[in-house]
Amino acid sequence: MEIIIVDTEAQASHLGAKIVAQQLMKKPDSVLGLATGSTPLALYNQLIGLYTQKQIDFSRTTSFNLDEYVGLAPSHPSSYNSYMWKNFFNHINIRPHRIHLPDGLAPDIAEHCRQYEGAIKAAGGIDLQVLGIGADGHIGFNEPTSSLASRTRIKTLTLQTRHDNAPNFDLNEQVPHHVITMGVGTILESRICLMLAFGTSKAQAIRDMVEGPISSSVPASALQMHPHTIVIVDETAASALSRRDYYRWVYDNKPKWQQYE
Ligand code: GLP
User: Fold this and answer.
1) Could you tell me which of 179, 228, 219, 212 has the C-alpha nearest to residue 67?
2) Choosing from 68, 117, 127, 138, which is the catalytic residue?
3) What CATH number has the domain bearing residue 106?
4) Which residue in 92, 107, 122, 191 is a FRET match for 247, CA 20 to 30 A apart?
């Protein structure tokens, strides 16, 4: 894992956008894996800015989102489908037929998940997967004790995750109990994983993911097995890492050809 510690969320999002932009410039028909939540919002804004300035083009890009709530129609304001259109897709030139999100209303969820996996494969696999992390170490909606070999499937949310995500729902509305999520095994097949994390609420999860043992108790720790994971954190999210100085030193001394900017 490459751990990059920057001062602020804005700097992290700027660097993250640069890495995604480089991927699109290198391979305009890239397959992007996309995440939701508050973490990637500034990254998406930066990418929209780069698109508006005509520095990047999404016309040949394919996307697959990590997860979706079961029982919510795509048009539901709290669905991840709505989130993606509102915060990203409506502002770039990605072609709608190349956008993929799990369908929270799929009548046969197991079959839908199989098809989702098949569509990722048919697209050539995910080139770059954007990730956030839950305070309990989840990636996508792979809650603690998820199999590290898991594929796209239905999962039950923990109380903590339902509580954490409640602000995205109306006061009188329940956060769904069930979700469809790419599996940890699915995520690990992405060629590059790009994780962002901000704030003290993520510090322990980041420490467990980077420096803890690989364990299904912290599904994100499976990324230790991934050959190309980039983790960009702000100072607060990095605050529990014991090897902070080493990660800084490595990043500051990267050879020029390996640098992102
Ligand atoms: C959510 C999403 C994840 C996200 C994580 C963190 O439950 N399913 O994909 O990375 O939790 O959310 P946030 O970025 O809002 O902290």
Assistant:
1) 179
2) 138
3) 3.40.50.1360
4) 191
